[in-house]
Amino acid sequence: MMSRRNWILVAAIGLAAVISLWSFVGGWYGSGPLAKDQHFIVPGGASLAAVAQRLEDKGVIRSASGFELRARVFGGGSGIKAGEFAIPAHASPSRVLAILSSDEVIRRFVTVPEGMPSIMVYERLKAQDQLSGEVASPDEGSVLPDSYAFETGEPREAVLRRMQAAMTRTLKELWEKRAPGLVVKTPEQALVLASIVEKETGKPSERRMVAGLYSNRLKQGMMLQADPTIIYPITKGKALGRRILQSEIQAVNDYNTYTMVGLPKHPITNPGRESIAAVLNPAKTDALYMVADGTGGHAFADTLAQHNANVKKWFAIRRERGEI
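User: That's the sequence. What structure does it adopt?
Assistant: Structure tokens below.
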């Protein structure tokens, strides 16, 4: 028969074990020390031990070793994902592990506006501090303008590949829906013409009309005479910031449509979906000429006489504004 002394000893050991177990469990589900909401980054390939230490250093948990042990007991210790996560104030270690193992990764966005040239796409990717790694300037016309989500630490090259894959898909999709009898005979030619349409008008409602006008000029063997094609070899698509020089108008190169018949050798920007669609379904028009009309759009003309009259109106508007 157990003596009273031994019974007390066993009871004390049992009580200590219960208290220890309660503390172990409570330390997993109880409130954490984080005073306010915080973003936490898990580097790619980081181990559970490394993540636990980072959590302790950031004040998210009290003990790295305690978190690691409990994570292995209660959560299997696996499944932590790389990326940026939002950790709420006083989150329990259990909640922290659940967040880091979930799809609650914070996604950020990089936006490529319609008509942004590739040199500026490159600069925008480089300026994103949350991205990693090097990236080369993409081929002109290879990027589809849109907003692209990315995770903190993601390689710039991976984001660029998504932008280019989107353009490849979009161009294929729209080419398959093209109208019959187009002057452009390949998707690549459509992309080049769409890049000119993109740069020539800021009015979405004019895209198909501009596409129809340039299609007419190509069919008749006329020079396109698109000012943006003069500027592209000079600035790679960035704003010129001054008037075009006569010597630049007369320059002979692979882009200047004032000194060549047909399309430039390559696109002059990254055209958006709507400009590509406009080229592949242009307006049915006899227009061959256009000039600014003072409203941000253009006055279109079928004949040179009509065009000259429109030019006079445009110069009168500019004189009224004090521009000339």
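The longest helix spans residues 4-29.
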